[in-house]
Amino acid sequence: MKKDIIRTDAAPKPIGPYSQAVEHDGTLYCSGQIPVDPITGDIPETAEAQTHLVLANLRAILKAAGAELEDVVKTTIFLTDLKIFASVNAIYGEYFDEATAPARSTVQVAGLPKGVLIEIEAIAKLT
Questions:
Q1: Taking the model in full, what pTM does it have?
Q2: Which of 10, 32, 33, 78 is the most exposed place for a label (fewest CB within 10 A)?
Q3: Within a 13 Å sphere around the CA of 72, how many CA atoms are in the beta-carbon half?
Q4: In this predicted structure, what is the pLDDT of residue 43?
């Protein structure tokens, strides 16, 4: 099984023994991204700002693999509180066109690394 590890300085470095993304047989598996600024390490306070940063980090990893948001076929969103779902959903819609939006699951979790409110993982098809 040949797999290619994707790394970019334009997204936060992994905080554990995992890769930002792995490509195998034309499919890109992106690890969950949290809202950490890749340059400063800062984490925004609001759910809205965190959502924008998570999607920017995800976009940077996709770009490093030669993909775009339009190539994403599945996402999973992890939230620490479903009360922020509406605002997260509205911002998510700014990044994914409704006509080509990926399949998606959203779940509430007890906690996320670094105390963040949101994490998003993605699977994309490389062309």
A1: 0.96
A2: 10
A3: 28
A4: 98
Tally of CB atoms within 10 A around 113: 11
For each of the domains in the chain, give its residue range(s) and CATH number, in order of start.
4-125 (3.30.1330.40)
Q: What 3-state DSSP class applies to 8?
A: coil
Q: CB of 92 within 8 A of CB of 72?
A: no
Which own/partner contact pairs does 99-104 have at CB distance under 8 Å and 24+ positions apart?
Answer: 100/70, 102/72, 102/73, 102/74, 102/75, 103/73, 103/74, 103/75, 104/74, 104/75, 104/76, 104/77
Mean pLDDT over each residue of the chain, to the nearest integer: 97
Question: 49 pLDDT exceeds 90?
Answer: yes
Q: 87 pLDDT exceeds 80? A: yes
Q: Return the pLDDT at 127.
A: 78
Give the residue among 14, 8, 23 at the shortest CA–CA distance from 122.
23
Contact between 104 and 76 under an 8 Å Cβ cutoff? The reply is yes
